Amino acid sequence: MPQEEASTRAIAGLLLKNNIRVYFATIPREVLAYVKTLSIKGLGDQDAMVRGIIGSVITTIVTRGGLADWPQVLTALMELLDSQDYNVLEVSIILFNNHFIYLYTLNILHTLTIIIRIFTLNKQSI
């Protein structure tokens, strides 16, 4: 949909986010997998508003389904932190922080400690 106007993509993203929030339990797994894949790819969109809404879609999926339903999201975000594209880097940092806050509020400090260690080791090996 990159050929569409940013405002059209933003509205579509908001509708998608709201539908995921309300109907998460009834969305077919294949559809959710497709949305997850395109959401990660869409983080590099040139429009800041669209990137932010894609971030909201990702956060909504993780909030509704939990990280156990999409464990690859943290790995994908960590990989995006190595991007040379400022747009991708900016939204990745925001999302990564959002997921840390989400994990903390669920009182999963052990998981956070492991993720931080992995992240630190990955950055040191560069």
Largest sheet: none
Q: Which percent band covers the strand fraction? A: under 5%
Mean pLDDT: 82
Count of folded domains: 1
**Percent helix range:** over 70%
Going by helix content, strand content and strand pairing, the class is mainly alpha
What does this structure look like?
The chain has helices spanning 6-23, 29-42, 48-65, 72-80, 86-105, 109-124. With 126 residues, it is mostly helical. It has one domain (6-124). The chain is globular, with a radius of gyration of 15 Å. The mean pLDDT is 82.
Condensed summary:
The chain is mainly alpha-helical. It has helices at residues 6-23, 29-42, 48-65, 72-80, 86-105, 109-124. It is globular and about 40 Å long.
What's the SSE blueprint?
Layout lengths: L5 H18 L5 H14 L5 H18 L6 H9 L5 H20 L3 H16 L2
Helix pairs in contact: 1-3, 2-3, 3-5, 4-5
Keywords:
126 residues; mainly alpha; globular
